[in-house]
Please model this.
Amino acid sequence: MNLQLTGHHLEVTPALRDYIASKLSKISNHFDHVIDIKVTLSVEKLSQKVEATVHVPGNDLHAECSNENMYSAIDLLADKLDRQVLRFKEKISDHHKVNGAVKHQATE
Model:
């Protein structure tokens, strides 16, 4: 998993970098096929904004969160992305149902 961090009107400190990496590692624990994650941190007056795009095979998942505190915005973003990745994983695994196929049904 490649992680790209960008700061807009903000310097990305090593503490922020480590915090984001630890929070987003949960996503790669749920789904192994994450290619890369692009995260943009920005400050707009009193709100801290975090945007992320997760590139998975065949799709891009995007989420953004804003809060007064950067760390809580990162927490909210990680939760949103986690839900999106789990939903995407369920979609790609639901295509081939073995028990519902006509040839696998019991005949009397």
Remarks:
- The first helix runs from residue 14 to 30.
- Residues 16 and 71 are 8 Å apart (CA to CA).
- The helical segments are 14-30, 70-93.
